[in-house]
């Protein structure tokens, strides 16, 4: 039902995501809802998240591309007030990948982890590596 | 007898107007003027009265004819027009409310340059690949499609695509260039693009 009247833009984006995926990123639409994507982002090399596989769920709202795709709890300006219809699923996922390479503790999702990162970065990086191994090993 | 009486009557008849004139001249010029003025006033009063009577009667006739029209069903348009006006006003209000919240006023959007896409013209301008595609819908421009160009940065999109975005957000989708100057950058001059929606908003409030 949700697949009827799917805008051409979503079809084009989906085709391109499948035919030429960005490095370390995969996004495939759900079979029963073409607006719902299962996303996997590989932890960037030389980051504490290296070796991790980060699974995400992405949903394209009815207003898309005039409104940003809906993702989980990710603090990223382009998913909120800085959204632009010239951005795409691909660019959003690349931004999330970049956020893993360069976390921004000044605009955190978790205040505690940001505090930890700012006061003792080495220890925070170790925690991130451990949690990546424990929770994002791609199992 | 008869000739005598006629002869006798003649001087009497001829003496009457002369006596009238004499009496008039006796009365004096002032009285003559007063009488003339009185006649004029009487005449104008009569004219005025007849005019008022005519108008009243014609109005009575017109109202009775419109009553007849209403019975004939011609009053229907009035019923249609009234809710339509209200609806239009309501739509204006919602559009204005949305515009005042974040996006641009449709009047401002409409003031931005628009043009028809032509592959030949684009090639002549020396634009490369990728510029023949709308960044919003990701569809290639087809011949004679209507495009709109952002006034400052020159980025263009399908008319429908960019208008829908600008109604929500006053920025270029590609470079985020805002056509509305920030108050800090131009503290002294108020651009027309800001004046137009404000004046409309004020008018709208006055109407309510």
UniProtKB/TrEMBL annotation, chain A:
UBC core domain segment(s): 5-137
Transmembrane portions of the chain: none
Pfam families (alphabetical): UQ_con
Parts forming coiled coils: none
Top-level taxon of the source organism: Eukaryota
UniProt cross-references to SMART domains, sorted A to Z: UBCc
InterPro entries xref list: UBC (IPR000608), UBQ-conjugating_enzyme/RWD (IPR016135)
Name listed for the protein in its UniProt record: UBC core domain-containing protein
Automatic annotation (TrEMBL), chain B:
Keyword Lyase carried by entry: no
Gene3D superfamilies cross-referenced by the UniProt entry: Zinc/RING finger domain, C3HC4 (zinc finger)
GO terms of molecular function: transferase activity; zinc ion binding
GO biological process: protein ubiquitination
Pfam family, one: zf-RING_2
Transmembrane segments: 31-54
Domain called RING-type: residue spans: 134-176
Keywords: Membrane, Metal-binding, Transmembrane, Transmembrane helix, Zinc, Zinc-finger
PANTHER family linked to this entry: RING-H2 FINGER PROTEIN ATL67
Protein name: RING-type domain-containing protein
Provenance organism: Dendrobium chrysotoxum
Organism phylogeny: Eukaryota, Viridiplantae, Streptophyta, Embryophyta, Tracheophyta
């Amino acid at each position: 039902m949700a697949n009827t009247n799917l805008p051409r833009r979503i079809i084009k984006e989906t085709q391109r995501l499948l035919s030429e995926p960005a490095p370390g990123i995969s996004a495939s639409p759900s079979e029963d809802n073409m607006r719902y994507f299962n996303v996997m982002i590989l932890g960037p090399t030389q980051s504490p998240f290296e070796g991790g596989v980060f699974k995400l769920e992405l949903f394209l709202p009815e207003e898309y591309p005039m409104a940003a795709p809906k993702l989980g709890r990710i603090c990223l300006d382009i998913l909120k007030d800085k959204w632009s219809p010239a951005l795409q699923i691909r660019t959003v996922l690349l931004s999330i990948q970049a956020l893993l390479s360069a976390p921004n503790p000044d605009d955190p999702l978790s205040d505690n982890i940001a505090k930890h990162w700012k006061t003792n970065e080495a220890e925070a990086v170790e925690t991130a590596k451990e949690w990546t191994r424990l929770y994002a090993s791609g199992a | 007898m008869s000739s005598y009486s006629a002869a006798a009557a003649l001087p009497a008849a001829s003496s009457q107007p002369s006596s009238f004139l004499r009496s008039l001249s006796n009365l004096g010029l002032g009285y003559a003027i007063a009488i003339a003025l009185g006649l004029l006033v009487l005449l104008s009063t009569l004219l005025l009265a007849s005019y008022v009577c005519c108008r009243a009667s014609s109005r009575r006739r017109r109202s009775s004819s419109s009553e007849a029209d209403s019975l004939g069903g011609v009053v229907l348009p009035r019923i249609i027009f009234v809710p339509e006006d209200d609806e239009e006003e309501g739509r204006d209000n919602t559009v204005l409310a949305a515009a005042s919240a974040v996006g641009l006023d449709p009047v401002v959007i409409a003031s931005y340059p628009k043009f028809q896409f032509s592959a030949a013209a684009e090639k002549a301008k020396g634009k490369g690949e990728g510029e023949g595609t709308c960044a919003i819908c990701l569809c290639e421009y087809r011949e004679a499609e209507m495009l709109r160009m952002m006034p400052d940065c020159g980025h263009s999109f399908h008319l429908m695509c960019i208008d829908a975005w600008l109604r929500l957000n006053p920025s270029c989708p590609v470079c985020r260039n805002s056509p509305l100057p920030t108050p800090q950058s131009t503290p002294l001059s108020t651009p027309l693009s800001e004046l137009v929606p404000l004046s409309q908003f004020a008018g709208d409030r006055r109407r309510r």
